[in-house]
Design brief:
Blueprint lengths: L1 H7 L3 H12 L2 H22 L2 H27 L6 H32 L3 H21 L4 H20 L4 H57 L4 E5 L5 E4 L1 H6 L13 H10 L8 H14 L5 E3 L5 E9 L5 E7 L1 H13 L11 H13 L7 E9 L2 H8 L1 H18 L5 E6 L2 E9 L2 H16 L2 E3 L2 E3 L3 E8 L6 H17 L5 E3 L2 H23 L2 E10 L5 E12 L3 E3 L1 H11 L2 H16 L7 E5 L2 H4 L4 H12 L6 E5 L1 H5 L3 H12 L3 E7 L6 H6 L4 E4 L1 H5 L5 H16 L3 E5 L4 H9 L4 E3 L7 E2 H10 L14
Parallel strand pairs: 11-12, 14-16, 16-17, 17-18, 18-19, 19-20, 20-21
Antiparallel strand pairs: 1-2, 1-5, 3-4, 4-5, 6-8, 6-11, 7-8, 9-10, 13-14, 13-21, 13-22, 14-15
Helix pairs in contact: 2-5, 3-4, 3-5, 3-6, 4-5, 5-6, 5-7, 6-7, 6-8, 7-8, 10-11, 14-15, 15-16, 18-19, 20-22
């Protein structure tokens, strides 16, 4: 029972191994069956006993069946992995073994009982004893089967001996009992040894499988590394490597082997086309030196020389080392690109601001040792912004590259051209002997950029303005020279662009004055130094005032009256026009709210205000605060707003129109006067510039132009206003040419809000042409 309990606890794979051991020695099964049947047949023939003969035949038949079962097991044992199948085969063996043993025991009984022939008895007993002893060793793995076979074979022999009356036979029977006990002990001992051996084998197999799995995983990890790896022993001979190592060195087809030396690896690497132009001794010396220092510099490999490897070495405790190879080609390219971008402009390839400062500071440091001067040409492209906005940034980028190419073709190799950013370039002219040398270069630069550009089929007329500063006369500091060149550039652009200008001390004074005016302007917005004046627009047929245009005036406590032509451009450049425009809108709407309901108010808006996405909300806020209806507000814009045409501009104008606000095109005829503007944008009023009205009585061309514009306005259902009317004759002529409204000193000069309110309240329906001109 203890054996069966222990047997039930065995792992399935050990049980399967023990069952397999029962069927394994087929030869012993065959020999046993033949030997036992021959012995039985010999006894039967000698004695002439049919029962013994029948028993011998039965022994032979069962023995052959056992041999057949063993053959079948070996053939189909692959399918015998299931515990139930294993148990079935064990029962088959157990049945055959016990049947064979019982027949052999019966042969012993019959022989001892039926004959007194000592030779026959000896033959039978020795065969049974030998079989029993063999069973103890052969089937010890399954002790229940072995003990059953031992008992069934030897016990009948002992009982037969005990039937004899003499003490000799009985003593032999007792010896057989002792033999059974001894064989049982031997069987159990062998069984323990077999179980322990199988358990150890199983553990070793598990360890081997685990080790093999670890080796497999290590191999997978090693060969899937992005780095190349090899391990060297104490004498720097190759021991381990991965596939990436061979790939990086182009050694996939080389006979790489364990124990290969570094010189051999280098030789194979050179044969693969790596390190072209290098000798093996030179490369080996370099690698040996690097190995001693435990690090490597980057080296160029691959036949084309474009791949760069970084190598590092880590020493091991046993004296060997691990060498790591990393492909740093992309990293090196990125580093080189970063280094390049640190000193060069990415778009044009020209030197950038950093390199410019390094160069100019180096020249300025030795300027006193030279007799010549250093000249800075600060270049600004005149119409680049409109090109960039209308044709798009890709065209703008190509244009900048072409500008850089043209400028580079003009300067000398000793000069330097830099892109500071946007459309601003600077040329550093060295060795300037005379002022005229700088002037000649500036003229050539302007001429080069004045020629038309052809970019993707677009003809672009650009032009440039140049500001020039010279060292040491204008300064010996790079920032100071750039500042003064910028002042000169501002002066060149103020003259219309397309030229150059040298720095003069008066420019610095003008800049300081402009800066002071800007500070005063900022203060003025916060201290309410502005005042609104209003000038009427009159219906030329009825003489009624239809609209009053709001005009901002600045009265400074010290400067006095500052003209709008002076402070408005500064307000636009600094962005102060946004705050100032909000103030004008709110004040104009508030004043207009107190006027008769048939009179509108017109407010001029700057292009800068149209860039503000919150303009529509500003207008709505001014109307809400004042209570003025949107239909009584008109917004006046110039063609400058349209030149900066954008989706945002059109969207804001549409928003204003949808609110019921009228939009007027001011100073029509002074710019491009594109008829496309009248079609594309929602204008309800066109104001003809006063220059045409001034020539109305003298030049027939002016009269024809006014008539054409008036006819165009009528056909497009737009109101046409004649600006700058100063005489009754001009008023009559403008009315005769088809103008609907007029504006000018003849109808009234700009007056304060109180004066305009009194005028409107006193005679809101008056015919202005019947009154004397009103003077502010």
């Amino acid at each position: 029972m203890e054996i069966r309990r222990a047997d039930a606890e065995l792992p399935p794979e050990i049980r399967a191994a023990l069952v397999e051991s029962l069927f394994a020695p087929i030869a012993s099964l065959t020999v046993g069956a033949i030997a036992c049947s021959i012995t039985g047949a010999a006894v039967a023939l000698r004695v002439g006993d049919d029962w013994i003969l029948a028993n011998s035949v039965a022994i032979f038949v069962i023995g052959m069946l056992r041999v057949a079962s063993a053959v079948f097991y070996r053939r189909y044992k692959q399918a015998a992995d299931q515990p139930k199948v294993i148990r079935r085969w064990e029962l088959i063996y157990e049945t055959g073994a016990w049947g064979f043993s019982a027949l052999l025991g019966l042969l012993c009984w019959l022989t001892l009982i039926d004959t007194s022939d000592g030779a026959l008895q000896l033959a039978v007993t020795t065969t049974a004893a030998g079989y029993a002893a063999g069973i103890s060793g052969r089937n010890a793995g399954r002790p229940v089967i072995a003990l059953g076979q031992l008992t069934l074979t030897a016990l009948p022999l002992a009982v037969a001996l005990f039937t004899y009356p003499d003490w000799v036979h009985r003593s032999l029977g007792f010896v057989v009992i002792l033999f059974i006990y001894g064989m049982i002990d031997i069987t159990l001992s062998i069984r323990d040894v077999i179980i322990q051996a199988l358990i150890m084998t199983r553990k070793e197999a598990a360890l081997a499988a685990r080790f093999e799995e670890q080796v497999r995983r290590f191999d997978i990890a090693l060969n899937n590394m992005s780095h190349g790896l090899c391990m060297l022993d104490q004498r720097d001979r190759l021991q381990v490597w991965n596939e990436r190592f061979l790939e990086l060195l182009h050694l996939q087809n080389a006979p790489v082997r364990v124990g290969m030396t570094i010189p051999e690896l280098v030789r194979h690497s050179l044969r693969a086309g790596n390190l072209k132009g290098r000798r093996i001794k030179e490369v080996f010396a370099e690698i040996t030196r690097a190995l001693q220092q435990n690090n490597f510099d980057q080296i160029q490999v691959s036949p084309d020389g474009e791949r760069t490897l970084a190598l590092s070495r880590q020493m091991m405790v046993d004296g060997g080392s691990v060498v790591i190879l990393e492909d740093v080609t992309e990293r090196k390219r990125a580093q080189e690109r970063i280094a390049h971008l640190a000193r060069y402009d990415e778009l044009t390839g020209l030197a950038n601001r950093r390199q410019f400062h390094e160069r100019i500071n180096a020249i300025l440091a030795t300027l006193n040792e030279r007799d010549s001067c250093l000249t800075i040409h600060l270049i600004d492209l005149d119409r680049f912004k409109s090109v960039n906005d209308t044709l798009g940034h890709p065209i703008g980028d190509k244009l900048l590259r072409e500008v850089a190419r043209r400028l580079s073709a003009v300067i000398r190799p000793t000069d330097m051209i830099t892109r500071l950013g946007g459309d601003e370039f600077v040329v550093l002219q060295t060795g300037t002997e005379r002022r005229q040398d700088a002037q000649w270069l500036a003229q050539r630069l302007v001429k080069a950029l004045a020629e038309p550009f052809d970019i993707d089929g677009h003809r672009i007329d650009l032009g440039a303005s140049i500001g020039i500063a010279m060292a040491p006369g204008d300064g010996v500091d790079a920032d100071e020279l750039l500042k003064k060149a910028d002042m000169a550039l501002y002066a060149a652009k103020s003259e219309g662009g397309g030229g150059h200008c040298f720095f003069a001390s008066e420019m610095e004074e003008a800049v300081q004055a402009r800066r002071a005016l800007e500070l005063d302007l900022r203060e003025a917005i916060g201290t309410d130094q502005f005042e609104l004046f209003f000038q009427p627009l009159v219906d030329l047929r009825s003489g009624r005032i239809t609209t009053c245009e709001a005009l901002v005036r600045w009265v400074h406590p010290i400067r006095g009256n500052v003209p709008p032509a002076v402070f408005i451009p500064i307000a636009e450049e600094t962005g102060l026009i946004i705050r100032l425009g909000e103030w004008v809108l709110e004040r104009a709407c508030r004043e207009a709210a107190s006027w008769p309901h048939g009179v509108k108010v017109a407010v001029n808006l700057s292009p800068v205000q149209f860039r503000d996405r919150g303009l529509a909300l500003t207008v709505i806020s001014a109307l809400a605060k004042s209570g003025l209806k949107a239909q009584r507000l008109e917004i006046e814009i110039t063609e400058r707003v349209l030149l900066e045409e954008s989706d945002c501009t059109f969207a804001v104008m549409e928003q204003l129109k949808n609110l019921g606000i009228g939009i007027s095109l001011d100073d029509f005829g002074t710019g491009y006067s594109s008829l496309n503007y009248l079609r594309q944008f929602p204008f309800h009023k066109i104001k003809i510039d006063q220059s045409f009205i001034r020539d109305l009585g003298e030049k027939g061309e002016a009269r024809s132009i006014i008539s054409a514009v008036a006819s165009l306005g009528a056909s497009l259902d737009k109101i046409v206003v004649a600006e700058g009317i100063e005489t009754e004759e001009q008023s009559a002529l403008a009315r005769a040419q088809g103008c609907h409204e007029g504006q000018g000193h003849f109808f009234g000069e700009p007056v304060t809000a109180d004066a305009m309110r009194r005028r409107l309240e006193s005679c809101p329906a008056m015919r202005v042409t019947d009154q004397a001109p009103m003077v502010a």
